[in-house]
Amino acid sequence: MLHIRKTFITALAILLIIPLLLPQSASAAPSASKNAGNKASSKIIYLTFDDGPTAHTGQLLDILDQYNAKATFFMLGPQMEKFQKATKRIVADGHGLGLHGVTHLPGKFYKSAYSGLKEMQQANESLNKVAGVKTSLVRTPYGSKPYLKSAYRNVLLGQGGFHLWDWNVDSEDWKYKKDHQKVYNSVMKQIHNVQKSGTTPVVLMHDQEATLKVLPQVLKTLKAEGYQFEVLTKKVQPVNFWNDKR
Q: Where does the secretion signal sit in this chain (predicted)?
């Protein structure tokens, strides 16, 4: 009986020692790989483009395809009807869909509590007419502050059922149409600052010729830094200047 007990203790000791003799890299590899995957998957970015579609949308989509990147397009009703091929391709390529109104004029869009709602509904009808789909995502002209007052938001979001989006990174591609390096430096600095704060970057860009000059450089850098390009949907909590989560 004593002999059996000694044999059992000896065998147990060997089993406990064996893992300590194994190379440390072998046991550490799985967790390191898992952590790297988590880090990569947490670097999500949302690229958004306003004011389209335009005559340049096809080239913009080609660049996005080249880098396997998705974006969200906040489109104007008349532009969708004018550039129907581009509108259909945006939908077919799986990009996010948003509305930007009809007139893009503050004096008309924000004329009353119901004027903005009417423009978004009209833009949605244009999207449906051209591509057979609708969306509940909206971005108001020039952003929601200070024009979109509380009563206006209640109509647009409450009665209209829309979801309001602004941005936390302004590329300023609308401002520096010839200084592409300045746009690149500014947008990358802002993206890094937003990311460091623990917030997902939502980048404002425009569907225009000037943006085509800087977009490849931005996408190349973001890809190299491990960002994943995702599209906005009604399931994503809205980012807007009023912190309105509806």
A: 1-28
pTM (predicted TM-score)? 0.83
Which residues, at least 6 apart from 188, have a Cβ–Cβ distance to it below 8 Å?
Answer: 218, 221
Residues annotated as part of the active site? 50, 206
Read off the pLDDT band of 60 (50, 70, 90).
Answer: very high
Q: Which residues contact 234 (CB under 8 A, 6 or more apart)?
A: 136, 137, 163
Report the C-alpha gap between 57 and 83 in whole angstroms. 9
- Report pLDDT digits (tens) over 125-161: 999 999 999 999 999 999 999 999 999 999 999 999 9
Residue 62 CA to residue 147 CA, distance in Å, equals: 35
Contact 214, 180 (CB under 8 A): yes
Token pair, residue 140, equals 């108001």
Average pLDDT, the chain: 87
Angle between helices 84-92 and 115-131 (to 10 degrees): 80
Q: How far apart are CA 120 and CA 115, in angstroms?
A: 9
